[in-house]
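Why run this: before we spend reagent on co-expression, it is cheaper to look at a predicted model of the complex and decide which construct boundaries make sense. The entries below are exactly what would go into the expression plan.
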Amino acid sequence: MSDSRLPEPPYHVAIFSAQRNAADDAGYAATAQRMFELAAQQPGFPGAESARDAAGFGITVSYWRDEAALLAWRDQPDQAATRAHGRARWYDHYQVRIARVGRAYRSRPAA
Amino acid sequence: MSDSRLPEPPYHVAIFSAQRNAADDAGYAATAQRMFELAAQQPGFPGAESARDAAGFGITVSYWRDEAALLAWRDQPDQAATRAHGRARWYDHYQVRIARVGRAYRSRPAA
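The model came back. Tokens follow.
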């Protein structure tokens, strides 16, 4: 994701932190890709960041222009069905937090 | 981190997403541990979650009871000095976002 696509705060984020189980890596990867493509079709989605460590613990932060855009994604039918299926199948446990970003800053680009 | 230590929303988070460079893994690990120990001594710090992938991209989310607790951590002298040193040394680039969590939910414990 290009940083430049992110707006200035305020914007909203969904923070998804989860422990993957060992089930069905291929199915998981295909679905994660499909979910990202669906998100990219939503209005007000500047992008997402994700990291997963070798033990399967991962954090994904998705960025949304405002809370309405985030809620529209939550309620998008394909996403909602895939989410319910996937969360039951691929995670030992997960947490979701919805937050409003009030400030943001970053490292200066290298000279 | 035990989930049970986290309060109900609202609370605050600092989302730190960063690309590690290849420098000084031992020094980085020791400092990360030291920073976590310093944070644990701060009032209003229920914990943190962190994941870094094999390519060195990582996300750390630290949780704070309220914005005042988060700002007190930002301004804690040892932390501020270590942060300035570390960010110049160990990252290709990073971003920090300060956000207020309004809602949170999680998977049900296994039966």
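The mean pLDDT of chain A is 90. Chain A is about 35% helix and 35% strand. Bring this page to Monday's planning discussion.
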